[in-house]
Design goal:
The structure holds 2 protein chains of 2 kinds.
Chain A lengths: L3 E6 L3 H14 L3 E7 L5 E2 L4 H6 L8 E3 L1 H6 L3 E4 L3 E5 L4 E4 L4 E3 L2 E4 L3 E3 L12 E3 L3 H13 L2 E5 L3 H12 L3 E6 L11 H13 L3 E4 L3 E5 L6 E4 L4 E3 L2 E4 L3 E3 L2 H5 L8 E3 L10 E3 L4 E3 L2 E2 L3 H15 L14 E2 L7 E5 L7 E8 L4 E8 L2 E8 L5 H10 L26 H4 L6 E3 L4 E2 H11 L4 H8 L9 H12 L18 H10 L5 H7 L11 H12 L13 H5 L2 E2 L5 E3 L10 H13 L4 E4 L5 E6 L4 H10 L12 E6 L2 H4 L7 H12 L8 E6 L13 E6 L2 E6 L2 E2 L3 E2 L2 E6 L2 H18 L6 H8 L1 H10 L1 H15 L6 H6 L11 E3 L9
Parallel strand pairs in A: 1-2, 1-9, 2-5, 9-21, 11-18, 12-13, 12-18, 13-14, 20-22, 35-36, 36-37
Antiparallel strand pairs in A: 3-4, 6-7, 7-8, 10-19, 15-16, 16-17, 22-23, 24-25, 25-28, 26-27, 27-28, 29-30, 31-32, 32-34, 33-34, 37-38, 38-41, 39-40
Chain B lengths: L11 E6 L7 E7 L2 E7 L5 E5 L13 E3 L2 E3 L6 E3 L15 E2 L1 E4 L2 E5 L5
Antiparallel strand pairs in B: 1-10, 2-3, 3-4, 4-8, 5-6, 6-7, 9-10
The chains are: A alpha/beta, B mainly beta.
């Protein structure tokens, strides 16, 4: 009996493994011919990273040496690319003209790296990360030194980055998405990974979109969409792979994303099989080695006419092959409503663990830091074991069944002794602990008296209480109310810890402060976004998706889903030109209602969302900007006509109001802020129920604050009287800044002042001139980043997607666009 | 007889790519009088709901997306992206639509799930 002729196109890991199975099952029943486009034997492609980093050599990663091919009588055509399949005559032809007849053919053409077609992608020094040639190219670049820019923060990109760093290059990773490896890791684990890589000196830029690669013949610079220029001698693109299906397509086989096969790995031609990254089975293509090896096994069994070992999809765990980085991810980790998860974070050890369940089964796990239980979770995932019995302790891992619950005080307990607890008085955790122990203190009042911690603004009270609870154990217990269901920490603690720990992103806060949910909720996300914006001016980038719709589209949503638009009228003053422009906008966009607001400006009600940019463009053209009538920020400065017209007016209240509004507009605050300047004590501008009010008197300006006229009605409290407009401006800026730094999200100025004490505010803003100046300077600094008219930004194209439908079907599509 | 619509009978329409929808955000698709909100979660999952809160018809597409749900911008009802069911103490359901993602491309069926 003559042997069956088996021809394999491709010599990667999948066909290599398939042959091993085949020889085990059928001995030498096949006469095997391999065409390999690469001039090499079969090597372990997933070990390229250790070769790049220098931890292994090429010889170490060879799977099948020359001897193996000889031993099994395999004909290996190296560097011969197959260009044609004759399915009728059953032969393949290579570029070099070699023709090989087959009885069975296996296509294992693998995949091609995806190269982003930005300008300059063909320059010398731009490489993919796919095979040994790429590694050789990178090692040449290493000899020249300089900076390598790795585009793509996925598995391969990060391995390349770590390898190049170990070889001594400066490395920058550019990643389009907000967190690293977003397909395998949730944002919390992605954050930990980023921190680890940054700790190794690798620069990581998430949300970075490459615009162009510059250079004269070879790479010199990489330019980002935001205009950033990075010097580079090497660019590695690791943004993904595409199944290599050209040959199969030209041969008329069924091709979708990959070469379509059944669960036996057989293509639409019963004599042609496909395995590896080029194959699509059950509608999926694969890039990790475990499923590729399973394909190899299925194909081998079916080639031997064994009707078993059909390919079935299984979740494959992901691991990053960077020495010293431990992460493990398997299965689902999304936020489906039928999914439940348990999260365990240990900020001190930098570990994170999340187990995702559907009903009583584990369906996914993400582990960072300590990954020893990864296999255990994966076993449960694969077996579909009912975990209801061990549900309570599941998260603690295999070794801790029946262990204790996590300590809610852990975040505070983990703080170092030199972590600042009380910012006002500069008191560290160690001092508080020592004083409690030395003096035998048992109450908050005693701790305040002896250490001054939380004796000033009081926002760190919760933290001080936590320190007491940890120090005194059962002797002291006081429950702190969490800011939402996602954390037991209150607003004050979160604000303090953001500063104490230097937390600069929402994922960073959620990780370090041990958030109980994976991605927060609609209560905590806007609050955290505000705290970061207020605490890190110019550094933190506003997260639009963590903002309420009004602040995202810069208009007020109404009950029918339309919006209201309020242009700013500085100090309540307007002109005939502005009024004419408003009237024109109302006519042009058929705006149903126009109303004068309580804040002395005009509200256009019932504007359709898609009309917003055009409405703003017309108002901008007439010189008007957003009135921030929707903002947790400065709304209006209400004025009376003052000494300009009024026979009782004592000062230029209108002029001062306009100055204040021009100084303070655009600032984000914990809740809305409304001001008023009234020209005499008759108080026509109603300054005594505003957040900050100014009452002009003959001798100067009386400043009042903490008023409310909403759900709660409260008259203002007097701060003091000053002589000049400049002092008024400084005090208004300083007070707003103090409130910005200390207020809890959605807490108005009067509530903040009630909480921290009116004496405290007066001492810091009125009596202590240095303190006043310092607050005001911080306010002025943060204003540098906030005074951009959001309307003109959007008219010029920012967030365009917000206002246009993604697609239009049905009757509306027939109508011509206006 | 109204037999349930099978997978193959669904009328899949290509509406754009995942990248057209902001992360943890939403975009709308208009189908005649109906507006369908397409949501993208932090994990790149795509869901489609009629853009109407079961409470007072608030536009869900304008809400904050979190943990597989969206919070309505009008009165803070929390709606499941998968089922359209109101969460917690509130009760009601918004129509949800089948979506299919191929590569980065999003396909939407204009017939709501039964």
């Amino acid at each position: 009996m003559t042997k069956a002729r088996l021809v394999i196109v491709g010599n990667g890991m999948a066909p290599g493994r398939m042959l091993e199975h085949l020889f085990d099952l059928a001995g030498d029943a096949f006469d095997v011919t391999i065409f390999n486009a690469e001039p090499r034997v079969n090597y372990d492609r997933i070990m390229l990273s250790p070769v790049l980093s220098g931890e292994k050599s090429y010889e170490d990663i060879i799977i099948h040496g020359d001897g193996w091919y000889e031993e099994h009588g395999i004909t290996l055509h190296r560097g011969e690319k197959v260009v044609k399949i004759d399915r009728v005559g059953k032969t393949v032809t290579s570029e070099g003209g070699i023709v090989a007849p087959y009885d069975k053919l296996v296509l294992a053409t693998g995949s091609n790296p995806f190269i982003i077609p930005v300008p300059g992608h063909q320059l010398d020094g731009v490489l993919a990360y796919r095979d040994l040639d790429d590694v050789d190219g990178m090692l040449k670049a290493v000899e020249q030194g300089g900076r390598a820019v790795v585009i793509g923060g996925g598995l391969l990109g990060l391995e390349a980055a770590a390898g190049l760093k170990m070889r001594g290059m400066d490395v920058t990773v550019l990643h389009l998405m907000p967190t690293l490896m977003e397909r395998q890791l949730d944002p919390a684990a992605g954050y930990l990974l980023q921190k680890e890589l940054e700790g190794r000196g690798i620069e990581v830029r998430c949300g970075a979109n490459t615009k162009a690669i510059h250079g004269d013949g070879k790479v010199e610079q990489v330019e980002l969409e935001d205009g950033t220029i990075i010097d580079a001698t090497l660019v590695v693109m690791a943004v993904g792979i595409r199944p290599n299906v050209e040959l199969a397509k030209e041969s008329g086989l069924d091709v979708n994303r990959g070469i379509v096969t059944d669960s036996a790995m057989c293509t639409s031609d019963p004599d042609i099989y496909s395995v590896g990254e080029c194959a699509e089975v059950g509608g999926r293509v694969y890039g990790l080695v475990a499923p590729l090896y399973q394909m190899a096994k299925s194909a081998a069994h079916h080639l031997c006419k064994l009707e078993d070992n059909d390919f079935v999809h299984a979740e494959t765990p992901t691991k990053l092959k960077v020495t010293g980085v431990n992460l493990y991810s398997v299965g689902e980790f999304g936020d489906g409503p039928d999914l439940e998860d348990v999260v365990l974070r240990d900020a001190n050890r930098g570990t994170y663990r999340r187990v995702i369940m559907r009903g009583n089964q584990v369906v996914g796990a993400v582990l960072y830091g300590d990954v020893t239980d990864g296999m255990w979770y994966n076993e449960m995932l694969k077996s579909g074991q009912d975990i209801s019995e061990i549900r309570d302790t599941l998260i603690f891992g295999q070794a801790h069944q029946g262990g204790a619950a996590a300590d809610p005080l852990a975040a505070v307990a983990n703080l170092a002794d030199d972590a600042e607890i009380c910012g006002c008085n500069g008191i560290c955790k160690g001092q508080i602990v020592k004083t409690i122990q030395d003096k035998g203190l048992t109450s908050l009042a005693e701790v305040r008296a002896h250490t001054k911690a939380s004796a000033s603004c009081g926002t760190c009270t919760g933290l001080v209480e936590s320190v007491m609870a940890i120090t005194l154990g059962d002797g002291y217990a006081k429950k702190v109310e969490g800011m939402c269901g996602c954390t037991d920490l209150g607003h004050g603690d979160v604000r303090r810890l953001i500063k104490a720990k230097g937390l600069k992103s929402i994922p960073a806060i959620m990780q370090e402060l041990e958030w109980k949910t994976s991605g927060g909720c609609a209560k905590c996300r806007p609050a955290l976004n505000y705290y970061l914006l207020a605490d890190w001016p110019g550094e933190y980038k506003d997260d639009q998706q963590s903002r309420f719709i009004n602040e995202r589209v810069h208009a007020n949503i109404q009950k029918d889903g339309t919006y209201s638009v309020v242009p700013r009228m500085w100090g309540g003053m307007t002109t005939s030109d502005e009024l004419r422009a408003i009237a024109d906008v109302v006519d042009k966009f058929k705006i149903p209602d126009v109303k004068v607001t309580g804040g002395q400006r005009i509200d256009l009600l019932g504007v359709k969302k898609e009309d917003l940019p055009a409405v703003w463009a017309d108002l901008n053209a007439a010189g008007m900007v957003s009135g921030h009538a929707y903002a947790k920020g400065l709304r209006t400065v209400k004025t009376c006509v003052g000494s300009t017209w009024c026979r009782f007016g004592t000062q230029d209240s209108t002029g001062l109001g306009i100055k204040l509004e021009k100084f303070m507009w655009g600032s984000w605050t914990p809740a809305k802020v409304k001001l008023a300047v009234t020209g005499c004590p008759r108080n026509c501008a109603e300054a005594t129920c505003k957040d900050i009010g100014v009452i002009c008197v003959d001798s100067g300006y009386e400043i009042v604050y903490g008023g409310a006229a909403g759900l709660h009605i409260q008259g203002t409290t007097k701060l003091g009287t000053v002589k000049t407009e400049e002092e008024v401006m400084e005090i208004a800026g300083a007070m707003t800044q103090m409130y910005r730094e200390q207020g809890f999200y959605l807490e108005r100025i009067y509530k903040w002042a009630d909480r921290v004490g009116y004496d405290t505010v007066k001492a810091a803003i009125f009596d202590d001139l240095d303190s006043r100046r310092a607050y005001n300077e911080r306010f002025i600094y943060s204003q540098k980043f906030s005074q951009t008219d959001p309307w003109s930004e959007r008219v010029s194209g920012v967030d365009k997607h917000e206002f246009n439908p993604l697609a239009v079907f049905g009757e509306e599509a027939m109508e011509p666009a206006e | 007889m109204n037999a349930p619509v099978t997978e193959s009978q669904l009328d899949w329409r290509l509406i754009g790519t995942i990248d057209d929808v902001p992360l943890q955000g939403s975009r709308c698709v208009k189908n005649g009088e109906t507006t369908i909100a397409i949501f993208r979660t932090a994990k790149d999952e795509i869901f489609a709901l009629e853009d109407k809160c079961p409470h007072k018809n608030g536009p869900l597409s304008q809400g904050i997306v979190h943990d597989g749900c969206v919070t309505c911008p009008l009165h803070n009802w929390v709606i499941s992206l998968e089922s359209g069911m109101a969460q917690g103490a509130d009760s009601g359901q918004t129509a949800s639509y089948p979506v299919r993602v191929e590569g980065r491309e999003i396909y939407l069926s204009l017939s709501p799930k039964v």
